[in-house]
Design goal:
mainly beta, Immunoglobulin-like, 2 domains, six-stranded mixed sheet, five-stranded mixed sheet, 19 strands, 0% helix
Length: 202
């Protein structure tokens, strides 16, 4: 940059360097995972910025701080209602001086006590209130080849009324109210057994 004085024509020059600061990025080992009720949470996330900022949006998980900075270590995930799954949606940001990077989202599912890590609800209430309207079976990432698990459903008379892979969508609208008994056949030959009840009345 050169400046010239209007009165006498004298000039002077100076050079100023402007350094480009890269947008800070957040990296994590996984975008989503499943843990049991009471598990400690240690997130392996980092940023190349000066600050690591996070916001937490819990559903049916208690005692979770709603926001903070720095690493998340030894946070215990406790369900508020022990009979239903919960989740924590984390939003992460990295921040440099005057620059905040794009958000990074992570979803953590917290399961009640389950069989072999697979959570199979015992109640379906398809009344449109947004709670238990579907049979929301949760299969964690640790289950290898979940499509190889077969779910068979029987009515109270012992007649088979449904069979499909465990991961298939169960269309509850095709079944009347009542208690049904299920078996889940595992690839190793073992079985999980239980019952589910459909109740539509308000």
């Amino acid at each position: 940059m050169t400046v010239t004085a209007a009165g006498n024509g004298c000039t002077n020059s100076a050079v100023k360097w402007i350094e480009r600061v890269d947008e800070p990025l957040v990296t994590c080992m996984a975008d989503a995972f499943t843990v049991p009720d009471g598990a400690p949470l240690n997130l392996d996330c980092s940023t190349d910025g000066y600050s690591f900022i996070w916001v937490a949006l819990p559903t049916n998980v208690r005692d979770i701080p709603v926001a903070g900075t720095g690493p998340i270590q030894s946070q215990i995930l406790l369900l508020a209602d022990k009979e239903a799954p919960g989740s924590v949606h984390y939003i992460f940001y990295g921040k440099n001086a005057g620059c905040t990077g794009d958000r990074y989202d992570m979803q953590i599912i917290v399961l009640p006590e389950s069989q072999n890590g697979i959570y199979i609800p015992e109640l379906i209430t398809p009344n449109g209130d947004g709670t238990n309207d579907q049979w929301n079976i949760v299969v964690p990432e640790t289950v290898v080849n979940p499509d190889a698990y077969r779910l068979t459903l029987f009515n109270r008379n012992g007649a088979q009324v449904y069979e499909a892979p465990l991961t298939a969508t169960f269309h509850v609208e095709n079944y009347p109210d009542g208690t049904y008994f299920y078996t889940v056949s595992k690839p190793d030959g073992g079985q999980l057994r239980g019952a589910v009840t459909i109740i539509r009345r308000q």
